[in-house]
Amino acid sequence: MVTRPIEESARVDxxxxxVPPIPLRGIMRIVVLVAGVTLLALLATAACxxxxxxxxxxxxxxxxxxxxxxxxxxxxxxxxxMTTSWSHFMHGQWLKAVMANSGGALLALLxxxxxxxxxxxxxxxxxxxxxxxxRWVIGTVVLITMVILVDWGIRVRQDSGVSPRTGTAIPINxxx
Length: 176
Known about the structure:
By secondary structure, the chain is mainly α. It is 56% helix and 0% strand.
């Protein structure tokens, strides 16, 4: 009988085992394709727009009205600057994208990464990436939501005339 040292016998085979791809069938394949094409269309549309120098309002180039919340209350909504952010992102102006709407910049980045995966997976009939843990998906949604809300809170405070950095009043002639 041959004996082996404990370290060798306790060693776990670290070679990757072949995991078959997760198939996409029927309606799910169509849903994945539509989601991927929709994200690509949004990115392409954002690339065709000129980002507004105001940091918001780019969506008006699509014939949409100005922000209702801003018109009614005088305060920008959480989505204000989202289209501008996507447009800056697609023009390679990533810092300006974050400045327009941080959550929008994250969504544009996520869309740019995910859309080719969705379209290719649908085309091949199976996921081209391994299964994503639902906790990552939920965490990503929560993170982006929190970024959008914090970004909005900062903008509301700036619009109110209070400096988010010092908490003191900003003179009217120096407000954004």
